[in-house]
Amino acid sequence: MTDQPFVSVIVPCYNEQATIHKLLEALRLQTYPLERMEVVISDGLSTDNTRAAIESFGSDHPEMTVRVVENRARSIPSGVNQAIRESRGGVFIRLDAHSMPIPEYVERCVAAHQNGRGDNVGGVWDIQPGANTWIADSISHAAAHPLGVGDAMYRLNAKPGAVDTVPFGSFRRELIERIGAFDETLLSNEDYEFNTRVRESGGVVWLDPSIRSVYFSRATLSKLAAQYWRYGYWKLKMLKRYPHTLRWRQALPPAFVFILASLIVLSLWFGIARLLLFMQVTAYFAALTMAGMLLAIRKKKGYLTWGLPLSIATMHICWGAGFLWSGIVSFFKNG
User: Fold this and answer.
1) What pairing do the DSSP bridges indicate for beta strands 170-172 and 91-94?
2) How much is the pTM?
3) Domains by residue range for the chain, with CATH
4) Digits of tens for pLDDT over the chain (335 positions)?
5) Which spans in 145-270 are helix H?
């Protein structure tokens, strides 16, 4: 059909040899015509076999246009922008090397734009474990649990409608020309900042639950900790520009960590602080353990009794600590 726009699928990538083939295969199976698509992978100078995996896939499937551009700045927003600059599409669909879109993903994104649903359109995640281990499975459940992500609707059961942000997102080239590209000074939270500019320019960020993708969560607690520390650290920097975008679920982890750290210090001298610290830690882990037990019973996976609390606590504490550390660094840097 002549009215089908040319689509550029944008994928920032670094050391993703374990998942990049799954993404490319999912894109090959799209219901949208392959001749009206290209995949532009912005590689941050991967040191594993990511490039070889992409080249092998391209050789096996010449019917699909897959190009690699170099992201020498090696950050996600710079990778997205580099891919956009070197792409041909009128519609961009941003995906992640950890994701696997359903076959109708591209078709439904394009249809939503043609129907005028929103300026940036995205869907929901079906979060799957990044490895075949009990802790990886626990992390995947934590990443979709209300205690872990609050009211982030793209990770929960959602209805179609206007939202604050969507994962990845799809948008027309005209949107970039109107509000600008992704902010390369933010090494995380760049998508939320972009969507804030969409909304403040009078545009609409639209969530369509029929647009679905599998997202592979981090496989270990150490990788989860690094991910959420980064989220918290860069969230504060984004909030300095848009303080009115702060949501309750984002304020709780730094408040919790600040109170926890304060009570730990004060408990060295004051008995009441030790009592309050004990009460806080006991109540917190009791709530998480209860959530873990309920999920373990429902999923018939006993390890979730302790795996879910460990994962959610890692998310909360690292997000909150990263947020607070960002404030401390900024304070001393600015004198």
Assistant:
1) antiparallel
2) 0.87
3) 7-219 (3.90.550.10), 239-333 (no CATH)
4) 457 999 999 999 999 998 999 999 999 999 999 999 999 999 999 999 999 999 999 999 999 999 999 999 999 999 999 999 999 999 999 999 988 999 999 999 999 999 999 999 999 888 899 899 999 999 999 988 888 776 554 444 578 899 988 888 999 999 999 999 999 998 888 998 999 999 999 999 999 999 999 988 999 999 999 999 999 999 998 888 888 887 777 788 999 999 999 999 999 999 999 999 999 999 999 999 999 999 999 999 999 999 999 999 999 999 999 999 999 988 787 75
5) 146-149, 173-179, 190-200, 221-241, 248-266
